[in-house]
Amino acid sequence: MRIAVLGAGVIGITTAYQLMRDGHAVTVIDRESEAANFTSFGNAGLVTPGHAYAWASPRAPGMMLRSLYRGDQAIRLRPKLDLRQWRWTVGFLRQCTAERARENTINKTRLCRYSQAVLGEVVAATGVTYDRREGGILYFYRSPQSFEPAAAKADLLRSQGVEIQALDRAAAIARDPGLGAAANQIAGALFVPTDESGDCRKFTQGLAKVCADQGVVFRWHTKLTGLEAAGGEIARVLTDSAPVIADAYVVCLGVYAPHLLGPLGIHLPIYPVKGYSLTIPATDVSALPRHGGVDEDNLLAYCPMGNRLRVTATAEIAGYSNAYTPSDFAVMTERAKKLFPTGLDYARATHWAGLRPMTPTGMPVIDRSPYPNLWLNAGHGHIGWTMANGSARVLADLIAQRQPAIDQAGMRYGG
Ligand SMILES: Cc1cc2nc3c(=O)[nH]c(=O)nc-3n(C[C@H](O)[C@H](O)[C@H](O)COP(=O)(O)OP(=O)(O)OC[C@H]3O[C@@H](n4cnc5c(N)ncnc54)[C@H](O)[C@@H]3O)c2cc1C
């Protein structure tokens, strides 16, 4: 089949790769000049089934409410005159019951674990390199009041097959001596030995090259402007240059998927949740943490990537702007300096902000749309690097009319 993949982030490129492997003639279309130039550019790099909790939880509404008058909340609502934002927020709040949070977490964990296994296969088959670091991720807590409930909550992920070790301060520092300077900030940690990390952008660009070498066609600098339907199917995709005609189309447009699909009456519950990212060159790589991790009380993620440290923070429900100013990074830079005071050149840090394509459940939509030749693979939220390879495999299996290897619960269109 001729298949057009719309979008060249980590989701589009992994999808193109799996479809190419199935023998399809694939064309990838993106307005950027290369792969992973939008949300997949500067994420935290954590491949983390051990952090697959749904963001919509009984604690989230209080955080969102407090964020209206306090700047220190992990999830921040910045209300806009934007109907999409209000619809999404209502949908998110509906998912905030204990029962929905549990079910969404179980669905996410299933997809994350499967996806990590597929990532391993893809790396073995292609040899793509991306500053991969296996051997675990450490999630640490600053007080017994935050650590103890988190250690108890981990039973849910354990029940889904994720190994999670609870460590006291000394054991956490022994596990990662790179946190030594921060020892007095740590009350306890959860260590997930099977989690891993790596540079999502490098991976995506490496895989795009593998795809190009094996015949996938890339149309860069091409803005998608619409999908044209005829006779109940998609007839062609319109762009700011020539239209593209294929037998099937896969939408992998992250936060912009609803924009292209809305005019067809396909409404995906995806809204941007903004985050900020710093990449700090190391002057002494031996001072970098051994493992990626999360400072859970501040929701500050960090990840050693070769001779750099990536640090990300913040979840702002604030519309489609990915603009930033230096002041947006002040608090996270101070926190990073307290955790990792030596061996890093903070003066040469590079800055970035990205828009997580969040659904209220935290699960992506991976399914056929009401148009039989139009497929959806979008809405991977805060954990799309982790979910990408498995999502792509599920989508390719659906197109091939094969039973996917995992249950599709939570990823169906409209359900
Ligand atoms: C701060 C931050 C930290 C994160 N940390 C992690 C992490 O540690 N682990 C993890 O698993 N995930 C993480 N994520 C989430 C992850 O980065 C995303 O889920 C993932 O990158 C989404 O990929 P995507 O391909 O769906 O979207 P994108 O990367 O945004 O790709 C969509 C593509 O569509 C293109 N496009 C859009 N509209 C058009 C159009 N009209 N015409 C042509 N092209 C178009 C864009 O140019 C883009 O290339 C993080 C995200 C952020 C923001």
Describe this entry's structure for a reader.
- The chain has 415 residues and is an alpha/beta fold.
- The protein has a domain at 55-96 and 130-195 and 271-358: D-Amino Acid Oxidase, subunit A, domain 2 (D-Amino Acid Oxidase, Chain A, domain 2).
- It is built from 10 helices and 19 strands.
- Flavin-adenine dinucleotide is lined by residues 7-12, 30-32, 37-40, 43-46, 48, 223-224, 252-254, 256, 275, 277, 301, 312, 354, 356-357, 378, 380-386.
Quick rundown:
The protein has 415 residues and is an alpha/beta fold.
Descriptive key words:
415 residues; alpha/beta; D-Amino Acid Oxidase, Chain A, domain 2; six-stranded mixed sheet; globular; binds flavin-adenine dinucleotide
- Highest CATH level, the class of the domain at 55-96 and 130-195 and 271-358: Alpha Beta
Give the integer mean of the pLDDT values: 97
CATH superfamily of the domain at 55-96 and 130-195 and 271-358: D-Amino Acid Oxidase, subunit A, domain 2
N-to-C order of helices and strands: EHEEHEHHEHEHEEHEEEEHEEEEHEEEH
Small molecules bound in the structure, each named once: flavin-adenine dinucleotide
Number of strands: 19
Distance between the termini: 28 Å
